[in-house]
Amino acid sequence: MRVLLVEMDTHTYPFYLKACAKCFDVREGERVHGIVVRNGFEALVFVQNALVHLYSACGMAESGYRLFEEMPERNRVTWNSVINGFAINGRPNEVMTLFREMGFEGVLPDGFTMVSLLTACVELGALALGRRAHVYLLKIGLNKNLHVGNALIDLYAKCGSIGEAHCIFNEIGVRSVVSWTSLIVGLAVNGFGKEALDFFKELEEEGLVPSDITFIGVLYACSHCGMVDEGFAYFKRMKEEYSIVPKIEHYGCLVDLLGRAGFVQEAYEFVQNMALKPNAVVWRTLLGSCMTHGHLALGEVVRARLLQLEPKHSGDYVLLSNLYASEGRWSDVQTVRRNMFQKGLRKSPGHSLVELKNHVHEFLMGDKSHSQRKEIYKMLEDVMKKLKVEGYVPRLSNVLADIEEEEKENTLSYHSEKIAIAFMLINTKPGSPIRVVKNLRVCVDCHLAIKLISKIYDREIIVRDRSRFHHFRDGICSCKDYW
DNA sequence: ATAGGGTTAG
What we know:
This is DYW domain-containing protein. This protein is mainly alpha-helical. Helices cover 63% and strands 6% of the residues.
């Protein structure tokens, strides 16, 4: 996009910069930024705000922030633009800090601010913090704001409190398709696929038009519930009834739908024949299915494609290595490991977050840094003892190394989610639910162990992992072991 | 006249 900049005045720049932001054309935006400076308009707050928005919206939150720092005059929009920049670029801690600073400067938050704040809470999985934000915005009457309502649905759903998400949905007077989509996606990631599809049906009965994102939620629900035929039927309806052109994300869902259900060869054929060029995520989905269902030969083929597309993705090395490990091919495991280390790649360390009395505690794998470490490890030993009485046998194939069996067992018992759960068993009242947010996917062994812990200690345990929720209760998980 | 928001496959 490029137009002649004759006759551009101070009123035109914001319009034009907004357009640049909308098509992520940061280069053109920078060019205009230069012109603005040369013409001496850089101190005008409207122009400045448009520039902060441009950088924030194009993934350059830091650049937006640098401008913000230099601004002689700021208003609420300036604050909102820079805060939102951090919110949409995955920097929740900066959002929290700036929100506080905004308050110190006497600038009152509005709906825009609260949406950014809620987005940051979602990112952190900080349910208690999100609830405080909710209470606050009730006080200032912002709960009537549709965008805020939708952000609240997302907050509660993504923090595993689907009942509260439901309440918010019911309280919204006039809902948009986004309200419905947020709830459908929320139900789907929490393992309530059937309910998600019921809501989709209701949405249609209300005469609303689902969006491409609504269909991502629907396809996600199908793939996580093993509804293969239904998924393809929805995909067909999406194209034919709603004239939505499928995006790579939709194809990704279908690959997952097939692969997850064990149709791994079919998934591979689907990838080769689909209308869009498969990206790394699609190939990675397929590699995940190869891993789950033990298709070693195909896994190696898929791995080769991934190496061409994204040679530096450490997660792919881990997946392949686990695939070899599950077949007991330890020398291949070693080769992959060595390969990975030689390229300077490291497995991203697993960590788990839990919220206790307005504080977020973080635990790493094998963490021994916590002030309560003695009690925690004593509790862990107790837990492991009780698990074994219940017939628990550690599943070791997921461990990335061909170390001695005993040592492997040790490594597993110290996975961050187990430590976090032990910490919460010590510090919370019997019977109260335990919520854990994990950065990686929960492994088979932890999944089995947590199921048993939920039964033995009579606790509801809600784990949000990298891709979905697990609600553990009475020894079973909402994912029905299909995740 | 001019600036800002929510839902998105692994």
